[in-house]
Amino acid sequence: MNKPTIQVSELRRLGTFDWLSPDRLVLLSRNMEELRVAKGQAIYRSDEPAKQLFYVLEGLIAVSLLGSEGRFVRLTVVTPGEFFGITALVRGWRRLSTATALRDSRVGRIESHVFVKEVCGLPWELFGGLMDTSQLRGFSHQPSLTRSSPRWSAPPGRACPTR
Question: Where are the beta strands (DSSP E) in 87-152?
């Protein structure tokens, strides 16, 4: 059975991917799986392995942290045309938050290494070097982000915008 994919025309309509060449937009469409998520359904939960990025096609998604008193603290509401789940861009990390549909929604899901390598054209092996570890301090339960490889930067106009 084939996984449901997102049409190129829908990705164009949302406008987020205007920076992508037509060939890369087709790659994105072929590699992004559509999920239909019911209101109140979790898309991912805190402490799960973070291996996929998500993109809102329709609906609203709440990204929340579980507070010390056992209540969720909403960090943001993600709307159509926006990414969430970006901890997947750091190899070996686990989810820090929980993402839940605030209404019936359609979400695109793509493996983070496929997005970085195939869609953005960046080397996944060195992508971790792009992360500024100074911004990630305080998450002591995460694996060390120290890299022995040299820092690598994308050519002008090739950076991948994410939320």
Answer: 98-101, 105-111
Q: Give the Cα separation of 26 and 118 in Å (integer).
A: 11
**Where do runs of H (alpha helix) occur along 54-163?**
112-114, 124-127
pLDDT of 141 higher than 50:
no
- Give the CA radius of gyration of the chain: 16
DSSP conformational letter for 2? P
Torsion-angle region of 50 (φ positive above 0: left; ψ -120 to 50: alpha; else: beta): beta
User: Token digits for 35?
Assistant: 């999920």
Q: How far apart are CA 17 and CA 141, in angstroms?
A: 34
The yes-or-no verdict on residue 7 having pLDDT over 90 is: yes
Per-residue tokens: 103: 């209404």
Whole-model pTM?
Answer: 0.76
Entry field: residues in the chain: 163
Q: Cα separation of 137 and 121, whole Å?
A: 28
